[in-house]
Amino acid sequence: MPVIHNAKEERTDGHIQDPASQRLTWNKPPVNVLVIRKIRDESLVEPFKELCRFLVEEKQMMVYVERRVADDALLSKDEAFGSIRNQLCTFREGFDDISDCIDLIICLGGDGTLLYASSLFQGSVPPVMAFHLGSLGFLTPFKFESYKTEVAKVFEGNAAITLRSRLKVKVVKDMLQRTGREPAQQPQEHNGILTHGHSEAGKVTLQLQVLNEVVIDRGPSSYLSNVDLYLNGRLITSVQGDGVIVSTPTGSTAYAAAAGASMIHPNVPAIMVTPICPHSLSFRPIVVPAGVELMITLSPDARNTAWVSFDGRKRQEIQHGDCIKITTSCYPVPSICCHDLVYDWFESLAQCLHWNVRKRQARLAEISDSSDTEN
To answer: HSE (CB half, 13 Å, CA atoms) of 338?
Structure first.
């Protein structure tokens, strides 16, 4: 089992822990490894076979993969890989629960593989080691060329860790009475459910852990979306535009950055709220403390419904009377660093987003004119 600890000694009260001191060690050597491979990418078949052969034959690991990955036609035709393939443990998303038996996750692909791996664990998440074999690779710091060395280092322990916070999201149906009027009272808490006035409690239809963002948009409608944003039960503002993004610091470099938000280091405890094409020049993205509860509902006078998606998945319609409740999850994703959490993040900014890349300013020529020197 993994343990994340602070490598620095305990100091006096008031000291703020340096996130760079977070290290991964093992109480006992890892045994079960989950390998996530990007689907529908034939270029990853050979790296996948190499990694599985290394883990099974050289490291004597129990390797778990998705059944659809193990049943890939290219793997089935490879007789030389047959002995390894027969030793793989398979599972199906939504049918088999592997959350309690995995010690380490290894991702082969782009950022989507890490998001998918996160979605498989709705509780505690094992450490994740992500190799850059996709298109962007902002969240995948490791290069596959040196996978044997890098994986061996992680097995030995004492690796740097970034704890990527997630959002705990609930979709509550029929939470507000569909009267078309403004709630008579401020929201109140009843048995963990936020209610307005004398309206009914509603039913939680979906609860998810989200790594990047929750996106509420207008869907196919030609009208502006019109949703109300509550913070700890108080109405903060109404969002009129194409929608709103509620993101983690990890998600701040994804859709939120494209919508004009600032980029936040994943170790900063915060939730970002970013409007999508707001119909107001003064509506700027805001950052609120981690731990607060956001609630989003359709405004009573909204002309159309809204749509919501979670890390780009499970898209569904939100109607009058429904609400979305969002807060910081207590189950972050421990992402293993290639170097350290500072270097990896700024390297991703430079390599993937070309942050602050420009032609260097030329130096001034040597001044030889005495009048210029005097001036």
So the answer is: 19
Minimal CA–CA distance to 4: which of 289, 337, 250, 342? 337
Terminal CA-CA length for the chain: 69
pLDDT digits (tens, 9 = 90+) for 123-136: 999 999 999 987 77
CA-to-CA separations, 128 to 35, 108, 116, 161, in angstroms, rounded: 10, 11, 12, 9
Structure tokens at 134: 């996709």
CA distance 32 to 56: 10
pLDDT score recorded for residue 12: 39
Contact (Cβ atoms closer than 8 angstroms) between residue 113 and residue 44: no
Average pLDDT, stretch 172-183? 59
pLDDT of residue 157: 87
- Buried residues in 272-298 as b, exposed as e (16+ CB within 10 A): bbbbbebeeeebebbbeebeebbbbbb
d(Cα 76, Cα 67) in Å, to the nearest integer? 12
C-alpha–C-alpha distance, residues 375 and 366, integer Å? 15
The predicted pLDDT at position 369 comes to: 56
Annotation says 111 is catalytic: yes
CA geometry: angle 73, 126, 333, nearest 5 deg: 105
Euclidean distance between CA atoms 30 and 156, whole angstroms: 9
Nearest alpha carbon to residue 63 among 45, 75, 49 = 49
Lookup: tokens for 82: 């047959």
- Give which of 196, 194, 176 is closest to 184, Cα–Cα: 196
Q: Which of 72, 103, 111, 344 is catalytic?
A: 111
208 contacts 236 by C-beta, under 8 angstroms: no
